[in-house]
Design a protein that fits this description.
single chain; alpha+beta; Transferase(Phosphotransferase), domain 1; 2 domains; 5-stranded antiparallel beta sheet; two-stranded antiparallel ribbon; about 15% strand; binds adenosine-5'-triphosphate; binds magnesium ion
Length: about 280
Amino acid sequence: MSDSAHSLSNDQEEYQFVRVLGRGAFGEAALYRKAEDNSLVVWKEINLHRSSKNVEDSALHEIEILSLLNHDNIVTYYNHYIDDESLFIEMEYANGGTLHDKIRIQESGQLLDEEVVLWYFYQLVSAVAHIHDFDVIHRDIKTLNIFLTKSEIVKLGDFGISKVLDGENRLATSIVGTPYYMSPELVRGEPYDLKSDIWAVGCVLYELLTLSKTFNATNQLRLAAEIVRGEIKDINEKYSEEITELIHLLLHKDPNQRPSMMETLKNPLLSSRRE
Ligand code: ATP
Ligand code: MG
């Protein structure tokens, strides 16, 4: 994190630095303890260094939207500030790792119980339904961005902020990470829309049931071809037929055939969970 972030915390003694959580494409995320109430929070830095004023404005706009979102299954945004070089965002800390970690730990071949998968999935769909209700598109739904608390509460994080930057830094971001969750229409170069989030939600569900990526390949070109082909291997017989049907709906090649998140919540697999 840049000097300014540390000095802010030191000068005001409002936040005590705990440790760096990791580095993303545009900066670092670090854990801080808030002196006021001893709680842990995350400060994420997004480097605006080479971006235009326009990008800065859209990032700030994105934050305004995020601050409107208030849901148990969404990482809460607390605060932000901006200096010459970076945007800093203060947010809720999820202390139980990510769904990606969960899947990796499990990869000894021991499949998760359907009940466990549905518990995570229900929370994810609830979160995405909430943001879609505000006409916000996440744009980067993947197991790495789905956090957990120690009590197994899902916290969807990492909204479009870095994606706002993507437009201008396309070259930089196309090298970072493999687009496992990209929908066929995105592969074809069509603009992002809510239905691509739904595709990604389908990919996450499939990954929870198989412990492997829905579409995978040794390079990005092959991956794109796999996605457009859209064929997926059957899931293990221990899972219900209803869940297979749901996967095929979410991963429908025609975006218009994919159910909305609201409709998905009404699916009998999930509807019994609603309070
Ligand atoms: P990207 O720039 O594409 O978002 P990234 O997700 O790797 O890349 P960050 O979002 O900055 O980068 O996150 C860096 C690290 O901090 C990751 O390991 C992430 O799991 C962790 N992290 C980020 N936000 C939180 C949070 N709210 N609670 C717990 N861990 C977090
Ligand atoms: Mg991230």
